[in-house]
Amino acid sequence: MPYLLDIDDPDIPQHKRGEYYRILRAIPPGRKLRAVMELNDLQRDVLAAGVRALYPGISEREIAAKLTWLWFPDDLWEKVYGSRRRETSEE
What is the 3-state secondary structure (H, E, C) of the chain? Predict the structure, then answer.
C-alpha cells in the first residue's frame, strides 16, 4: 500500500519517488479521504484496546471518556472540559 512508504528513505531511488508521487496524485480525493478516515478509526481502535488492557472491566462509556482524554490536545480539552488535573491524578 503506497500510503505506508517512507519516501524519504535514502535507499529509495529518485525515479521510484517520482513514481510514488504519480500514484498518489492519481488517487481520487474521496479515496484518499476514506483511507485517512480508516487510519483514524484504526488508531482509535488501538487506543481503545490499550485502555481495555489497562482498565479491565470498565464500561464502554468509561472507555469513550478515556479515549477523549487521550485524543484531544491539552488546550482543546481545557476549553471544553476544564483542567486535566483531576483526570491525571486518578491514573
Answer: CHHHCCCCCCCCCHHHHHHHHHHHHHCCHHHHHHHHHHHHHHHHHHHHHHHHHHCCCCCHHHHHHHHHHHHCCHHHHHHHHCCCHHHHHHC
